[in-house]
Amino acid sequence: MARWLGIDHGTKRIGIAAGNSADCMAGPLSVIRAAPTEEAIRNILDMAEQYGAEGIVVGLPLNMNGSEGPQAKLARGMAGGLAAATELDVRLWDERLSSFQADQSLAGTMTRKKRKARQDAVAAAAMLEEFFRSNGPEKAARPERPGK
What we know:
- The chain is an alpha/beta fold.
- The chain is built from five helices and five strands.
- It has one domain: YqgF/RNase H-like domain (Nucleotidyltransferase, domain 5, 2-Layer Sandwich), CATH 3.30.420.
- It has helices at residues 37-50, 70-85, 98-106, 112-133, 136-139, and strands spanning 3-9, 13-20, 25-33, 55-60, 89-94.
- The N and C termini lie far apart (32 Å).
Protein backbone atom coordinates (compact mmCIF):
# COMPACT_ATOMS: atom_id res chain seq x y z
CA MET A 1 0.00 0.00 0.00
CA ALA A 2 1.65 3.22 -1.19
CA ARG A 3 0.76 6.43 0.58
CA TRP A 4 0.77 9.66 -1.40
CA LEU A 5 0.20 13.35 -0.79
CA GLY A 6 -1.88 15.32 -3.26
CA ILE A 7 -1.09 18.99 -3.84
CA ASP A 8 -3.52 21.58 -5.22
CA HIS A 9 -1.18 24.50 -5.90
CA GLY A 10 -2.54 28.02 -6.07
CA THR A 11 -1.00 31.47 -6.03
CA LYS A 12 -2.10 32.15 -2.44
CA ARG A 13 -2.90 28.75 -0.95
CA ILE A 14 -1.86 25.13 -1.38
CA GLY A 15 -4.33 22.40 -0.57
CA ILE A 16 -2.88 19.14 0.71
CA ALA A 17 -4.53 15.73 0.87
CA ALA A 18 -3.30 12.26 1.81
CA GLY A 19 -4.36 8.86 0.60
CA ASN A 20 -3.21 5.43 -0.38
CA SER A 21 -3.26 3.58 -3.65
CA ALA A 22 -4.54 0.30 -2.16
CA ASP A 23 -8.10 1.55 -1.62
CA CYS A 24 -7.98 4.60 -3.94
CA MET A 25 -9.18 6.81 -1.09
CA ALA A 26 -7.91 10.24 -0.11
CA GLY A 27 -8.90 12.86 2.42
CA PRO A 28 -8.15 16.55 2.84
CA LEU A 29 -5.38 17.39 5.32
CA SER A 30 -4.51 21.03 5.33
CA VAL A 31 -4.24 24.31 3.49
CA ILE A 32 -0.95 26.20 3.70
CA ARG A 33 0.35 29.49 2.32
CA ALA A 34 1.90 29.25 -1.16
CA ALA A 35 4.59 31.84 -0.47
CA PRO A 36 7.37 31.84 0.24
CA THR A 37 7.92 28.78 -1.96
CA GLU A 38 10.83 27.40 0.10
CA GLU A 39 8.68 27.40 3.24
CA ALA A 40 5.78 25.75 1.39
CA ILE A 41 8.10 23.00 0.12
CA ARG A 42 9.44 22.44 3.65
CA ASN A 43 5.88 22.20 5.02
CA ILE A 44 4.85 19.73 2.32
CA LEU A 45 7.90 17.54 2.91
CA ASP A 46 7.27 17.62 6.67
CA MET A 47 3.71 16.38 6.05
CA ALA A 48 4.99 13.71 3.66
CA GLU A 49 7.29 12.43 6.39
CA GLN A 50 4.55 12.61 9.04
CA TYR A 51 2.16 10.56 6.88
CA GLY A 52 4.80 8.15 5.60
CA ALA A 53 4.19 9.18 1.99
CA GLU A 54 6.13 7.44 -0.73
CA GLY A 55 5.11 9.96 -3.35
CA ILE A 56 3.68 13.41 -3.99
CA VAL A 57 1.35 14.23 -6.86
CA VAL A 58 1.01 17.86 -7.86
CA GLY A 59 -2.17 18.84 -9.67
CA LEU A 60 -1.56 20.35 -13.10
CA PRO A 61 -4.35 22.86 -13.84
CA LEU A 62 -4.71 22.47 -17.59
CA ASN A 63 -7.17 24.51 -19.61
CA MET A 64 -10.23 22.65 -20.89
CA ASN A 65 -8.57 22.32 -24.33
CA GLY A 66 -5.50 20.69 -22.71
CA SER A 67 -3.22 23.70 -23.07
CA GLU A 68 -1.17 25.12 -20.23
CA GLY A 69 -1.67 28.59 -18.81
CA PRO A 70 0.21 30.55 -16.14
CA GLN A 71 -1.18 28.43 -13.26
CA ALA A 72 0.10 25.23 -14.88
CA LYS A 73 3.57 26.75 -15.16
CA LEU A 74 3.48 27.60 -11.44
CA ALA A 75 2.39 24.05 -10.59
CA ARG A 76 5.20 22.63 -12.75
CA GLY A 77 7.64 24.88 -10.89
CA MET A 78 6.38 23.64 -7.52
CA ALA A 79 6.60 20.02 -8.67
CA GLY A 80 10.16 20.58 -9.90
CA GLY A 81 11.10 22.22 -6.61
CA LEU A 82 9.67 19.30 -4.65
CA ALA A 83 11.46 16.77 -6.88
CA ALA A 84 14.76 18.59 -6.35
CA ALA A 85 14.26 18.70 -2.56
CA THR A 86 13.35 15.04 -1.94
CA GLU A 87 13.95 11.48 -3.02
CA LEU A 88 10.18 10.81 -2.97
CA ASP A 89 8.42 9.98 -6.22
CA VAL A 90 6.96 13.29 -7.49
CA ARG A 91 4.39 13.25 -10.28
CA LEU A 92 2.13 15.67 -12.15
CA TRP A 93 -1.57 14.96 -12.73
CA ASP A 94 -4.30 16.73 -14.66
CA GLU A 95 -6.54 18.38 -12.07
CA ARG A 96 -9.15 19.89 -14.38
CA LEU A 97 -12.48 20.20 -12.58
CA SER A 98 -11.12 19.19 -9.14
CA SER A 99 -12.00 22.62 -7.72
CA PHE A 100 -15.47 22.31 -9.25
CA GLN A 101 -15.86 18.89 -7.59
CA ALA A 102 -14.71 20.40 -4.28
CA ASP A 103 -17.27 23.21 -4.60
CA GLN A 104 -19.99 20.65 -5.27
CA SER A 105 -19.09 18.50 -2.26
CA LEU A 106 -18.87 21.47 0.10
CA ALA A 107 -22.00 23.27 -1.13
CA GLY A 108 -24.38 24.05 1.72
CA THR A 109 -22.18 22.46 4.38
CA MET A 110 -20.55 25.52 5.94
CA THR A 111 -20.18 29.28 5.68
CA ARG A 112 -18.63 30.74 2.52
CA LYS A 113 -15.49 31.72 4.43
CA LYS A 114 -14.99 28.24 5.91
CA ARG A 115 -15.77 26.64 2.55
CA LYS A 116 -13.14 28.78 0.83
CA ALA A 117 -10.55 27.88 3.48
CA ARG A 118 -11.23 24.14 3.00
CA GLN A 119 -11.82 24.03 -0.76
CA ASP A 120 -8.17 23.64 -1.80
CA ALA A 121 -7.59 20.60 0.43
CA VAL A 122 -10.84 18.99 -0.76
CA ALA A 123 -9.80 19.66 -4.38
CA ALA A 124 -6.42 18.01 -3.64
CA ALA A 125 -8.25 14.94 -2.29
CA ALA A 126 -10.49 14.73 -5.39
CA MET A 127 -7.46 14.97 -7.67
CA LEU A 128 -5.55 12.35 -5.63
CA GLU A 129 -8.45 9.88 -5.81
CA GLU A 130 -8.64 10.33 -9.59
CA PHE A 131 -4.86 9.79 -9.74
CA PHE A 132 -5.29 6.45 -7.94
CA ARG A 133 -8.33 5.33 -9.97
CA SER A 134 -6.54 6.09 -13.25
CA ASN A 135 -3.34 4.22 -12.34
CA GLY A 136 -1.47 7.49 -11.96
CA PRO A 137 1.40 6.01 -9.95
CA GLU A 138 2.32 3.95 -13.02
CA LYS A 139 1.69 6.43 -15.82
CA ALA A 140 1.85 10.03 -14.55
CA ALA A 141 4.66 12.26 -15.78
CA ARG A 142 7.53 13.25 -13.52
CA PRO A 143 8.42 16.95 -13.44
CA GLU A 144 11.67 18.33 -14.72
CA ARG A 145 14.07 19.18 -11.94
CA PRO A 146 15.29 22.79 -11.95
CA GLY A 147 18.47 23.30 -13.93
CA LYS A 148 17.89 20.39 -16.31
